[in-house]
């Protein structure tokens, strides 16, 4: 069986791992998933990540982040655009999840970036996911 939406799978793995208070989660490697992981780290949602090469297909080990009280930093992570229903936005319509407290990750013509980076560069694109 082939996976129809590897990004949704990645987000679900992260969501499930944070809820079970796991230290890390392994995600099959791809360029897009690596870029999403880099953004999650730069925005402070995850502690760190490592690229693990295991033969032909490697994986990304994502180290999850928790507060000093043990609360998960990622409160929610959802897919916005799906293979069956793509969601594209123009510059004026770039979403601000939770009134700016969350981050929307977009795929633009200049690469993967957050809603604030995309707005600053004047680029619209496909909304991949929301993280808060």
Our count of domains comes out at: 2
CATH class of the largest domain, anyone? Alpha Beta
Q: The CATH topology of the largest domain, please?
A: Ribosomal Protein S8, Chain: A, domain 1
* Average pLDDT metric: 95
Summing up helix and strand content along with how strands pair, one would put the structural category as alpha+beta
What is the helix content?
25-40%
The amount of beta strand, in percent, is 25-35%
One letter per element, helices H and strands E, the order comes to HEHEEEEEEHE
Q: Report how far the terminal alpha carbons are from each other.
A: 32 Å
Number of contiguous helices: 3
Shape: globular
Low-confidence runs of at least 5 consecutive residues: none
CATH architecture of the largest domain: 2-Layer Sandwich
Q: What is the rounded Rg?
A: 15 Å
Let me know the largest β-sheet: 5 strands, antiparallel
Number of strands: 8
């Amino acid at each position: 069986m082939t996976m129809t939406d590897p990004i949704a799978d990645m987000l679900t793995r992260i969501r499930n791992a944070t809820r079970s208070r796991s230290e890390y989660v392994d995600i099959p490697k791809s360029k897009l998933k690596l870029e999403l992981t880099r953004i999650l780290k730069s925005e402070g949602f995850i502690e760190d990540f490592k690229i693990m090469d295991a033969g032909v297909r490697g994986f990304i080990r994502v180290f999850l982040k928790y507060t000093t009280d043990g609360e998960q930093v990622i409160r929610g992570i959802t897919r916005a655009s799906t293979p069956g229903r793509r969601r594209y936005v123009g510059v004026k319509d770039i979403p601000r999840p939770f009134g700016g407290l969350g981050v929307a990750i977009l795929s633009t013509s200049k690469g993967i970036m957050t809603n604030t980076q995309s707005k600053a560069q004047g680029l619209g694109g496909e909304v991949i996911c929301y993280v808060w």
